[in-house]
Amino acid sequence: MPLIFYYDLMSQPCRALYIFLKMTGIPFESKEIALRKLENTTDEFSRINPFKKVPVIGDSGFLLTESVAIFMYLCDKYEKFDWYPKEVKARARVNEYANWQHLNLRSNGAMYFRTKIITPRLTNKPINERELEKWQGRLEDSLGDLENVWLARSSYLGGDHLTFADLLGICELMQPIAAGYNFDREKFSRVQDWMQRVKNETQPYFDETHAVPMRMRTAILKDQKSKL
What we know:
Glutathione_S-Trfase_N; 60% helix; glutathione transferase activity; cytoplasm
């Protein structure tokens, strides 16, 4: 019985897991849950995940939520130790980033996206520029940590080669980018170089997975330009 993957590609961790599954060749059955249609709030899906969030996997009746836990489970089950090293110290580096990101890059990037895109659409009100400036500042604090801590220590977020930490990181960063954010490429040169490496190593799945977010970015930038 194939793995069942419940996801929406507008979700950052769903995109990370989708790229991973495609690159590793782990067979899975797609179950798309459209967050924009509130399909995650139905009684049927609530029985799959009481927290009403994606991603979720089902493995022969075993249901597992939370993206980091799913990555760990799949890497151990399918022995994908290039993505999640077996050696204890190398694994600890991946765990270190996966734990750090929740209240840093993930939280700040998501709130930038919510403030600029989701809240105005839900409330039919203009963007709260003061709130957006606050979250942009916090996002750039996280980018500074990527630049000056994580990527100063090693060329990837979890060590010297691609791991699932990098998939989590780049998919989180693509969320504010989809909302039209442009980071300072001179200030964050290591981040730029790392992003390009990860994109190159995960093609064609990176572009496939980010097709909708990048169409959103194109539309937002076009609208911004028209208002100048």
